[in-house]
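Render this sequence as a predicted structure.
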Amino acid sequence: MSDTTNKTVLISQEGAVRILTNSNPAARNAITPTLYAELSAALADAEKDPEVGAIVFTGAGDFFCSGGDLNLLAKRRELPMAERRQILEGLNNLIRALRDCGKPVIAAVEGGAAGAGLSMALACDMLVSARDAFFTVAYVKVGLTPDGGATAFLAEFVSRQVLTEMCLTGDRMPAERLHALGAVNRLTDKGAALAEAIALAAKVASGPQRASARIKTLCRQAHHATLEEQLDAEAVFMVESQGDAEAAEGIGAFLGKRKADFVALRRAGGKADAS
């Protein structure tokens, strides 16, 4: 595996899996405006690269992300409110980039994810965590309120009462409890989250790229859409998929009793059929 350094984001490749690492270990990978831009750009590059089938996002060292850099946040009070909002939109755009990336994004969490670090982890499509890691909405402890979609993501898994307790106390929630609630896909031993996430990403990367992107969209909106809206969205995507070269390859492989080669289609930049 070869690494390239892009200031804050380390970029490496293992097979068809692009690994993006938030590298600020001296501050437990605290979030900075530099990360907003670099990680968003790295996600866009991975999405365009035909050699990439899936993405893993992790933190350097033994901690995923401690949230916002308090040294920077302390200075924000000196700025006009409009400027503070403009800076915060950088985080919001990063969350959108994680959510909307056309390729599956899997978070690998060691140690813990706090504040906006929790938001970034939950914005990913799947989450692998070390068993001893924790998650916390810690804003209240420094007189702040949640951001980065933390309350929206957590509300998909926990009751209003549990969400309110987490946000008003800032207490840590163990990874095992989030796993039981369905927010964490897989638990690993300490130090094994990245390897497990890469293995999961490699499995996903062998699938059909455009069908996977459609599936991502359906899964993202399923918690919020009505049945009628979801039926319509599923129908639109099914009709698109039926005319796609990926379906021709997948169905042909099944009927021919061979393994489908979706990777070759991705590398060839195969276009959807017009039929």
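Summary. The first helix runs from residue 33 to 48. The chain is about 50% helix and 15% strand.
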